[in-house]
# Entry
Amino acid sequence: MAKKKKIKKKVLVALTVVLFFVCYFLGFTLFKDTKDKEPGQQTTEALEDDTRSLIKQLSSKSKIYLSDSKVESVRIEKDYWDNITVLFTEFTKIRKPQSYTPIYNGNSDDGIRFSTDLNYFRVYTVSKEEYYKVPVATKKELSKLLSESIYLSFDFIKQYKSWDTVKITYKDETKKIFGWNFKDLALKMVQKRMVGKVQPEKSKERSKYNFTINIQGENYDAKVETMGKDYVKITQGEGKNKIQAYYEVHTGLYDYLVKDIFKLEE
# Structure
């Protein structure tokens, strides 16, 4: 009887060992298959499983990057993207147009791409594409939003590698920032969110110090005005072409200008 129990115990141990190795092998194989897939491949498969139209999928994305003939891959603010996606509801789906040369190109962070020549709007992935007609009445608004979403984006302003000259003014004093300090300045520019005009303008009136940062870059000029510790105003262009946006920011930029650049009393 004791001998039979011993044999059963040995068989049970052997089966347990075999089962362990089978489970280990299966788990390793599944992990390897997942790991071997490129991130883009996994994303593409997820997109293909989504049965919504590409333009509806694109509308639901939050991280969007936009390029034109001058700049590449600028992450645009959610407020601007929300306004752009509202216009999508006015587009009409069509067949591929005979002539199409895009002037704006963009993408989400998970593989959906899009482009437009302002007459047509194309949305596509590696395996699908859709074309839409932009109504004449919508063209001007679309152009304005796309342009502003790039050139008033905080991400665009912070691209210090495209800066040529930077000058910062406090009252009648102007200081030039040299190239080796561009990165330090850019790292101090950290936004929280886009805001309206009223609160920043009030903050500017109450503030002891306010500064103006003039950035001259490749194919553009930009002005960043501090409005107290917590806000900045970004301005591009002049006269009728002037565009502006306000942001709530972290106080690091203001502190850097007060202490390190102008060495003012707190």
Notes: The chain has two domains: 52-151, 154-261. The CA atoms of residues 119 and 134 lie 5 Å apart. Residues 154-261 form a domain with the Dna Ligase; domain 1 fold (CATH 3.30.1490).
